Amino acid sequence: MPVGKISFNVHAQGVRNATPLKDLLREIDPAAVLVMDGFGLLLELKSILPNTICIDREYPDVSVFSKSPAQWLKEKADKVGSTGVWVYTTNEPGLTKEVIAWHVELIKLNAKRQYPIRIVGVNLGVGQPENWNDAKEFLQLADKYRDWFILGLHEYAAVVPTSGFIGGNPVERGFALADGWPRGDNLDKIKPPNGGMYHCGRVFSLNAYCKAEGITPPRVILTEHGFDHLNDLESWYNTLQLTQKYGNIRGWKTLVDQWRIFYPQWSEG
């Protein structure tokens, strides 16, 4: 079994030398690896990571809904064959009724195949959805066919991990610096209903909905996660200390100077 629950998202076009990547992944033995636009690389990784869920993503995939579920399924089945890799449906579409219906039909069609392909579906962006009420049939099918269907979610934070639990400017919402919020000293104040698990932790609202409806929650993979730009937190984090050589706050390297202020007791060793 995998050593940990971490997942990796690899942009194949940026991999100039696959050897260091392979060495790292062998050491970590992650639960999942997604490779975008690099099917050959994905197959190489699958050969050395027998315990890992290996996911193929083809970009662009926003237009996936211009194809019928039957057409999409045939194209992907022809591509992956008997390789055993998983296939990514679409990226951050929003959980609309149309998106739900497309995936419901896809799952039903796949269930009729003698050898269903493995699917990682929807891959919702942060803040999606506000509720799961329209997704009952979809979640029932995701549970029924959990051997070959996994729900993908994306989770991001900005500046500090606890920012991922909150939607909107935290200072304007009353999470003052004195509360210890930026350092994560007062997590109780961040829990719902105050925090809402808007960017991270949506699996808790998913599990609560499923429990209320008598559904076993689906399998979930975080197909994207980390630190990045978050529009609704921008007015807060643009008041913080940007690491000088960067133009704007996004990933962890842009935050080093601010972290020195938040965590003076930490060393950089």
Give the rounded overall mean pLDDT.
Answer: 87
SSE pattern: EHEHEHEHEHEHEHH
Bin the helical content: 25-40%
Strand-residue fraction?
Answer: 15-25%
What is the number of helical segments per DSSP (H or I, 4+ residues)? 8
Work out the number of β strands.
Answer: 7
Radius of gyration using CA atoms only: 20 Å
Sketch the major β-sheet. 7 strands, parallel
Uncertain runs with pLDDT below 50, 5 residues or more?
Answer: none
The general outline is globular
N-to-C span: 31 Å
| Class from secondary-structure proportions | alpha/beta
The largest beta-sheet arranges its strands as 1-2-3-4-5-6-7
Task: Give a short summary of the structure.
This protein has 269 residues and is of the alpha/beta class. The chain contains 8 helices and 7 strands.
Give a written overview of the molecule.
With 269 residues, this protein is of the alpha/beta class. The protein is 30% helix and 16% strand. The protein contains eight helices and seven strands. It has helices at 18-28, 39-48, 69-80, 97-111, 136-144, 202-213, 234-237, 256-262; strands at 7-11, 32-36, 53-57, 86-88, 118-124, 149-157, 220-227. A seven-stranded parallel sheet has the order 1-2-3-4-5-6-7, with helices on one face. Helix 1 links the parallel strand 1 (7-11) and strand 2.
Descriptive labels:
7-stranded parallel sheet, globular, 7 strands
Helix/strand layout:
Blueprint: E1 7-11, H1 18-28, E2 32-36, H2 39-48, E3 53-57, H3 69-80, E4 86-88, H4 97-111, E5 118-124, H5 136-144, E6 149-157, H6 202-213, E7 220-227, H7 234-237, H8 256-262
Parallel strand pairs: 1-2, 2-3, 3-4, 4-5, 5-6, 6-7
